[in-house]
């Protein structure tokens, strides 16, 4: 009977959460938690609602409880890493992002790990993380783009350009890759090459006003 009530209130909480009613979601999750205080999912659900309500200290407590009850949930480690990152505890964020990646290969987890590493000026470590992933995912355009961003942070623009071009070669329809490359070219005063990247985007999607803004800004230089 108690388990039925846990499931009921958790489901109602999930519905409120999906509707953006995070305060109501929190209340329903807490009712469920009263029936099952050692349920790691309920603690992480409460934390999710609290994060949306910007109550990060409380969320951190529930995430730690969830991990103590079950340390094998990659997303909970990721959520805790995000809280540490927001607090400026980048080394702690790095640890949690690594924990999440040990449990699940996920590009979002990797991207946030790179943010934490770059925030600590660990540029070479960030570059190595990308290269390790590429050993088994050599056709991943997302990783090549991330690697290019890491080289940019290190101000190694030659290698950054190579990685952005690899990303574009594998998937030319993603505008972020062209924009990253164009920005890099502009930094080196290679305006005509940057113009070609923006012009590609305009030809690909002539209805997007941002592309005209980017090329207009380039012309004003």
Task: Describe, in short, the structure shown.
The chain is an all-alpha fold and 221 residues long. Helix content is 81%, strand content 0%.
Cα radius of gyration in angstroms:
22 Å
The secondary-structure element order is HHHHHHHHHHHHH
Largest pleated sheet: none
Total beta-strand segments = 0
Total helical segments: 13
- Unreliable spans are none
Intertermini distance? 70 Å
Overall SS class: mainly alpha
Structure description:
With 221 residues, this protein is mostly helical. The chain is built from 13 helices and no strands. The mean pLDDT is 95. The protein starts with a helix and ends with a helix.
Write the layout of secondary structure elements.
Layout: H1 2-18, H2 22-35, H3 40-52, H4 56-69, H5 74-87, H6 90-103, H7 107-119, H8 123-136, H9 141-153, H10 157-170, H11 175-187, H12 191-204, H13 209-219
Helix pairs in contact: 1-2, 2-3, 3-4, 4-5, 5-6, 6-7, 7-8, 7-9, 8-9, 9-10, 10-11, 11-12, 12-13
Which key features would you list for this structure?
mainly alpha, 13 helices, elongated, 221 residues
């Amino acid at each position: 009977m108690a388990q039925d009530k846990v499931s009921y209130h958790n489901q109602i909480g999930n519905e409120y959460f999906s509707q953006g009613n995070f305060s109501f979601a929190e209340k329903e999750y807490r009712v469920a938690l009263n029936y099952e205080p050692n349920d790691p999912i309920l603690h992480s659900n409460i934390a999710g609602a609290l994060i949306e309500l910007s109550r990060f200290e409380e969320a951190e407590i529930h995430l730690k409880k969830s991990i103590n009850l079950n340390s094998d949930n990659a997303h909970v480690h990721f959520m805790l890493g995000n809280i540490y990152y927001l607090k400026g505890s980048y080394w702690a964020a790095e640890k949690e992002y690594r924990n999440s990646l040990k449990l699940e290969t996920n590009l979002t987890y990797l991207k946030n790990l790179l943010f934490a590493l770059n925030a600590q000026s660990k540029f070479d470590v960030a570059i190595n993380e990308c290269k390790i992933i590429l050993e088994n995912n050599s056709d991943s355009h997302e990783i090549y783009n991330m690697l290019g961003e890491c080289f940019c942070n290190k101000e190694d623009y030659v290698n950054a350009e190579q990685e952005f071009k690899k990303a574009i070669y594998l998937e030319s329809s993603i505008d972020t890759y062209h924009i990253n490359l164009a920005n890099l070219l502009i930094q080196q005063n290679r305006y005509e090459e940057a113009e070609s990247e923006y012009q590609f985007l305009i030809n690909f999607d002539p209805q997007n006003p941002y592309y005209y803004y980017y090329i207009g800004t380039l012309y004003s230089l």
